[in-house]
Amino acid sequence: MPTSDLTSVDDLRERILADIEPLPAYPQALMDAFGLASAEDVHADVSLPSFDNSSHDGYAVRFEDVASATEDAPVHLPVVGEIAAGQAGLLALSPGTAAKIMTGAPMPTGADTVVPYEWTDRGVVRVVVSQAPARKGEHVRPVGDDVRSGDLVVSEGTVLGSRHLGLLAAVGRATVAVRPRPRVVILSTGSELRDPGQPLGHDSIYDGNSYLLAAAARRAGAIAYRVGIVPDEPAKFLEALSDQLVRADVVITSGGVSQGDYDVVKEALRPEGVWFGGVAMQPGKPQGYGRVGEDRIPIFTLPGNPVSSYVSFQVFVLPALRRMMGMRPEVRPVLRARLTGPLTSRPGLRQFLRGELVTASGGSSVSPVGGSGSHLIGDLANANCLIVVPEDTTSVEAGATVDVLLMDEEF
Ligand SMILES: Nc1nc2c(c(=O)[nH]1)N[C@H]1C(S)=C(S)[C@@H](COP(=O)(O)OP(=O)(O)OC[C@H]3O[C@@H](n4cnc5c(N)ncnc54)[C@H](O)[C@@H]3O)O[C@H]1N2
Ligand code: MOO
Ligand SMILES: [Mg+2]
């Protein structure tokens, strides 16, 4: 197939993303929302802090009462009470008095400043203050200093990590609207495939792809159902597929999409209206995408070569899963690194070569790992990045800067 007949990587990705919608949102208890995207803009119902409180253990005072305190001319104040965190304490502090106050405890009205213990004799009945605060309000955390009631605290699409869950709890939210993890069904096609742990004939190979794809889906945040192996028979493939559709938000198949006589996926799904075609990339040239079954479940039919499956997942499936979860489609930063040696690339195809990225203070460098063959899963596992060579580039010199995408576990 001449490269002019191929669909571009970006066109297919955009077509897929235009077809995929976020899954419906539902309210989720905070801890179970970890790692999911917020499906709402959350505004604070309270301010943080919600009352003026002390940042130090010490004495609540009026600034003017202690402003002159020095080591040589300390100020003496009667201690009229004590306020710990969680205790409403004194209602009002009269001029010329002090109240013991603990970190986080509410400031009594009338007091505007806190003198830490270290600047005093820690007196119980009377306190001797031998250092003056620099300003009124020192060691006091005023209402709304951090967050004001009504502020946007988490915006829609934010992937909820520890910081966000901590903040949501801090403003009193017990639940947050999220989108569910997509349920991804994974089918490997190929009569040559065997399950790991089973005996291998001279003409059979182990099914690596369903593990690769299930792990990649799980890493993306999805729930992966690894169905296993389906032989190269259209009727059996369609039967296995229809059995699985009830529990699928997405289906991924591997194998059977190229030009071969037993390319079962293409044969079975083309009549169903699934699109099959060549994409201007290597690995991952033969691709298919469409919808199947009564519920029109999105299906990605990835090529069978293991590296092709991996790259196709990263380029097409991952952005789609992220959109379903209400996340921005791209997750990887595109890094730039200096190439340690020259490389060549096929014209008209975007090539994803395996590389080893080394980051150093003087800048990052990247070296190709292994060859460009789509079957080289050993090298795929050893690499830590993909070097992306654009369609119009056929050679890159040593020392030139290239785009690099980190592998799944590396970011
Ligand atoms: N005449 C042509 N032949 C091929 C072309 C082409 O354009 N013209 N394209 C090649 C490219 S590029 C790719 S990629 C592959 C895609 O093949 P299929 O998607 O049809 O996959 P299969 O034929 O079933 O298998 C290809 C290869 O991968 C191995 N495989 C399959 N499934 C698994 C699995 N689950 N685990 C591990 N390995 C798997 C399979 O044994 C084959 O070696 O087509 C080229 N051919
Ligand atoms: O596109 Mo295939 O994935 O080159 O081997
Ligand atoms: Mg084939």
Automatic annotation (TrEMBL):
The keyword Cytoplasm is assigned to this record:
no
The record places domain MoaB/Mog at 185-323
Pfam families, from UniProt? Answer: MoCF_biosynth, MoeA_C, MoeA_N
Which cofactor does this sequence's record say it needs?
Answer: Mg(2+)
Please tell me whether the keyword Hydrolase is annotated for this protein: no
Q: What class of enzyme is it?
A: transferase
Q: Which UniProt keywords apply?
A: Magnesium, Metal-binding, Molybdenum, Molybdenum cofactor biosynthesis, Transferase
Pathway info: Cofactor biosynthesis; molybdopterin biosynthesis
Q: Which InterPro entries match?
A: MoaB/Mog-like_dom_sf, MoaB/Mog_dom, MoeA-like, MoeA_C_domain_IV, MoeA_C_domain_IV_sf, MoeA_linker/N, MoeA_linker/N_sf
Enzyme Commission no: 2.10.1.1
Q: Which reaction does it catalyse?
A: adenylyl-molybdopterin + molybdate = Mo-molybdopterin + AMP + H(+)
CDD domains membership: MoeA
* SMART domains in UniProt: MoCF_biosynth
Matching NCBIfam families: Glp_gephyrin, molyb_syn
Q: What is known about what this protein does?
A: Catalyzes the insertion of molybdate into adenylated molybdopterin with the concomitant release of AMP.
Q: Which family does it belong to?
A: Belongs to the MoeA family.
**Per its record, how is this protein called by name?**
Molybdopterin molybdenumtransferase
Its source organism is: Nocardioides panacihumi
